[in-house]
Write a structure and sequence with these properties.
- The protein is α+β, with helices and mostly antiparallel strands and 186 residues long.
- The chain has a single domain, classed as tt1808, chain A (Alpha-Beta Complex).
- Helices cover 24% and strands 27% of the residues.
- It contains 4 helices and 12 strands; from the N terminus they run H-E-E-H-E-E-E-E-E-H-E-E-E-E-E-H.
- The chain has a 6-stranded mixed beta sheet with strand order 3-6-7-8-9-10, with helices on both faces. The chain has a two-stranded antiparallel sheet with strand order 1-2.
- The protein is globular, with a radius of gyration of 17 Å.
- 27% of the residues are buried.
Length: 186
């Protein structure tokens, strides 16, 4: 009896897939369907992203922000995943971005992942570690159910911010502060 080894997909394969109305990520060559998030998820993402973007603009920081864009973070096997929100230092964008496709290794400096109720914390922590391993610093994980944000930093520290706390932006956005309760207020 012969056993066939499944073919690992590449970022090019992901890009060439026909639009079937579904969303996918590629994790170490394996295709994963990622259904679109719910409205509450989107609101929380905006409630985090808007103040960050406003702070960046107000202070003349040279970052580009993005949401739900595929980020090509690992090759052979390929990994292309999409953060809910991210900042990338403009100086790290060497050339004009392609109209279509991914830029290998253009990992965000800051990543925000919003976690809908029912998603396991261990899986969210593993995803945060994937971003850190790729070079992101920090990764903010916002848990809708617990109304808290967990900041994972590249030095290995983890800090929890609950609804009574003020989220800070160190080390990347020194001086940024936002009330966690406001992020979860609709």
């Amino acid at each position: 009896m012969t056993t066939s080894i499944p073919k690992l997909l590449t970022a090019a394969d992901l890009l060439a897939m026909p639009d079937d109305g579904k969303r996918y990520e590629l994790v170490r060559g394996e295709l994963t369907e990622t259904p679109p998030p719910g409205i509450r998820h989107g609101v929380v993402t905006d409630q985090i992203g808007w103040p960050i973007k406003a702070f960046v603009r107000q202070h003349g920081l040279d970052f580009v922000s993005t949401s739900e864009a595929g980020i090509f973070i690992e090759q052979e096997p390929d990994t292309v995943i999409a953060p809910d929100y991210a900042l990338i230092a403009r100086e790290r964008i060497a050339a004009q971005l392609p109209e279509q496709g991914y830029v290998v290794g253009l990992v965000p400096d800051l990543v925000v992942e919003v976690i809908s109720p029912g998603y396991r914390e261990a899986a969210a922590s593993a995803r945060a570690q994937t971003w850190l391993d790729a070079g992101a610093r920090p990764v903010l994980v916002a848990y809708i159910a617990g109304q808290e944000i967990v900041a994972h930093r590249d030095d290995g520290t983890v800090r929890r911010f609950d609804s009574n706390d003020t989220l800070t932006g160190e080390p990347l956005l020194s001086g940024f502060a936002g009330t966690v309760a406001d992020i979860f207020t609709y």
